[in-house]
């Protein structure tokens, strides 16, 4: 009788091991689904300039016709004329991590027409760092985040920005 019970317990243990291994495999094969379009955010600028900028309108150029990636954040209210721009000037290969040095990533905060013409950028020569993490989905949705904290300008000084992680979003509704 004890041999039969031992055999039943041994079978139960094997079945649990196989079940958990199967669930690990299925979890690893799940696709990362895109979140919804990000909400508006306030970018706080401190340093040589102090600004509080609300960005609520993402637009993008997904590289169907060009081998790079451009993403922009603006405000729809016209409360300010700043645009936050993220550009991968190097080869854009879809999902992945892009950096200043390896992918010619540029990050700028600049005033468009109607402002003072202030222009700030992430500058590797000043010790700045920035990266972009992108995900893609079959319906031409590209999303991810920019990580950066410092920008500088020859004419306008140095600034830090908060938050330091900024969402990126491109879909058929906001792509040029």
Structural commentary:
The chain is α+β, with helices and mostly antiparallel strands and 176 residues long. The chain has two domains: 1-30; 41-170, no CATH class. Helices cover 18% and strands 43% of the residues. The protein has helices spanning 2-29, 100-103, and strands at 41-47, 51-55, 57-61, 69-74, 82-88, 96-99, 105-111, 119-121, 130-137, 141-148, 150-153, 157-162, 165-170. A five-stranded antiparallel β-sheet has the order 3-4-5-7-8. Strands 2-1-12-11 form a four-stranded antiparallel β-sheet, with no helix packed on it. Strands 6-9-10-13 form a four-stranded antiparallel β-sheet. Strand 9 and strand 10 (141-148) form a beta hairpin. The longest helix is centred in the N-terminal third of the chain and has 28 residues, at 2-29. The protein is globular.
Write the layout of secondary structure elements.
Layout: H1 2-29, E1 41-47, E2 51-55, E3 57-61, E4 69-74, E5 82-88, E6 96-99, H2 100-103, E7 105-111, E8 119-121, E9 130-137, E10 141-148, E11 150-153, E12 157-162, E13 165-170
Antiparallel strand pairs: 1-2, 1-12, 3-4, 4-5, 5-7, 6-9, 7-8, 9-10, 10-13, 11-12
From the spread of the alpha carbons, the general shape counts as globular
Overall tally of domains: 2
Query: What percentage of amino acids are in beta strands?
Result: 35-45%
The Rg value, from CA coordinates, equals: 23 Å
Trace the largest sheet across and list its strands.
3-4-5-7-8
Count of extended strands:
13
State the share of residues found in helices, binned by percent: 10-25%
> Please, how many helices?
2
Low-pLDDT runs: 1-29
Major sheet: 5 strands, antiparallel
Class from secondary-structure proportions: alpha+beta
Straight-line N-to-C gap: 74 Å
The averaged pLDDT comes out at: 82
